[in-house]
């Protein structure tokens, strides 16, 4: 696949995505930009698109970005839950071509109906990386992953060209390895270990989790020691999966909002090759680490490097924030629509230190993954435009032209969100209070904000 940036019309349709043999992924951005356009024509008409999976539930004109003209086809069967569908026979060419980009942008997609379905859901939104829950994130016990699921997951990873390096499973919200209560901590540990074993069965190498909480019953140092002890035990009971600690927003007793707390956990981990960090932009912003201007972004990343070490950074969660800097609140917002600003994300998706790690959206989607599809497309476009600007010597964002580009991108996200937010509101209005509450609960996690552990 190759990606061609048409600079002459870069605001309205900057990116053309087309499929060419995958060996081209080693070409440079400059080569990609100058390559002649070769587009694979699809015989599918818009009317052929099945209306399934939320992705295709909008009119095609609103979900296919201006420059991406590959038709989509989602072959799926509906399961009992209304918004959950199980794709069965779709193959790579049934999905939109993915951007060729060294920054691996994706989303935390649904694994409803089996972990193997996450791969279809990632492909459907054009994701080059993805996150998933390996089991119900709100239950202590879940049925084992079946051999059939493992087989399908592995074969689809190959078929859809996803590398385990770019898959970042997210741990259960119930897990609290910092709990001073031994019995409760052991229950968490079992659930944690079970997740790691699932990763290994699926051939995955990263596992992202929330460090934990003192629950108000221990000092922070005591909880940090419990977390590190659990990691050491888990590393001995598994072979190679890397336990990736997520930074937190800083509410109450939760560990991990300060880089120094994460560093203390790592310091006590015996096998340093088995531990990493996932940096959530909403959480770091809420915890007081500013990334809005290039200057403050650089100093926050330098601080991370100084206090933890960039070599530990194994992934990021790209979320804007509904609340201001230092609010300590964990409220995810769509890219460009919150307090962080789209410019901050442009620093990330052009930072050479952040290449080749999963960059995962956990933003609200209002029942429609096509919101992620739009955000992924915008971030890829931003990444390629800004990288190209840097290559040809156009300096940092802030000049008039850049402002227009940013404003236009924010408008596109806003429009996409507005369509589905209105649809969801109308649906919730019809469905009574009880149902509305249930829908809100289901939203948290995959696309909302993170919970405080028990
Ligand atoms: Zn969060
Ligand atoms: Zn998280």
Automatic annotation (TrEMBL):
Cofactor(s) listed: Zn(2+)
Keyword Metal-binding appears in the UniProt entry: yes
Keyword check for Hydrolase: yes
GO CC annotations on file: mitochondrion; nucleus
Region Disordered, annotated ranges: 423-454
UniProtKB keywords: DNA damage, DNA repair, Endonuclease, Hydrolase, Metal-binding, Nuclease, Zinc
GO molecular function: DNA binding; DNA-(apurinic or apyrimidinic site) endonuclease activity; phosphoric diester hydrolase activity; zinc ion binding
InterPro entries: AP_endonuc_2, AP_endonuc_F2_Zn_BS, Xyl_isomerase-like_sf, Xyl_isomerase-like_TIM-brl
Biased amino acid composition, Acidic residues: 442-454
GO biological process: base-excision repair
Source organism (scientific name): Rickenella mellea
Gene3D superfamilies membership: Divalent-metal-dependent TIM barrel enzymes
Record family assignment: Belongs to the AP endonuclease 2 family.
Cited SMART domains: AP2Ec (SM00518)
PROSITE patterns: AP_NUCLEASE_F2_1, AP_NUCLEASE_F2_2, AP_NUCLEASE_F2_3, AP_NUCLEASE_F2_4
PANTHER family: APURINIC-APYRIMIDINIC ENDONUCLEASE (PTHR21445:SF0), ENDONUCLEASE IV ENDODEOXYRIBONUCLEASE IV (PTHR21445)
This protein's name: Apurinic-apyrimidinic endonuclease 1
Pfam families listed in its UniProt record: AP_endonuc_2
Top-level taxon: Eukaryota
